[in-house]
Amino acid sequence: MTPLVEPLSPGLYIVATPIGNLADLSPRAADILSRADAVAVEDTRVTAGLLRHIGVKRPMLPYHDHNAEGMRPQLIARMATEAIALVSDAGTPLISDPGYKLVRGARAAGHAVVTIPGPCAAIAALTLAALPTDRFFFLGFLPSKQHARAEAIAEVAAVRATLVLYESGPRLSACLAALADGLGDREAAVAREITKKFEEAVTGRLSTLATRYAEAPPKGEIVVVVAPPEPPAPASEADADTALAEALTRLPAAKAAGEVARALGLDRRTLYARAMELKGERTD
Q: Cα–Cα distance between 109 and 76 in angstroms, integer?
């Protein structure tokens, strides 16, 4: 006799899938997919291949940008009595993907929401890029039109974190050039074919990478990782004196020193002593 398989509790199961190498599907993810009542998918052809890999057949329900508004209420209604797994074509659902509204709707309806973590191209690229990882900012895909892209880049130019974004091969060189124009010629990495046989992470300055890929645009989707801005040069004594002199026209010495200390990142006590000297010089 075939052993009975315990059914999953009703609700929404967010299942991360491989970004290239099918061996990266976790045992837990495979188990959830094999027991779900239905799987909400971006492309049935892609997910069918994954299900064949683990030797199971499950009903698939297309859920993507073009049908999400109509499908979402149906999926949420089914979660009351069924276990619905949500997958993307590759990686973790909701990351540069329309699934968050489904999660919001499921929670609003009182259904259980469970995550089954796994591969994510943005995180994998960070591990390959050899750039700071203590703080990072994910941008998804930048706009394709030049003006809108420049505006989006300007919005994050001052963010003191490593930037991570997705891009397609044909647009890669133009994107890298726009990043160099908007951010300065920072260090960066271009990661592609992650987890596949020809995985690579090419590092260099944004301008150098833009030239490289203008001559040979790569295929497929790519992750671009850009270093954070360089810390500003420390303020000089002349900078501090100029700022203090201006502040002293409006504020007492202690408050002037505090304001300049915050603005320039200098020691408040040292600035206070200098402010008193400047006041003395002005009195003389």
A: 8
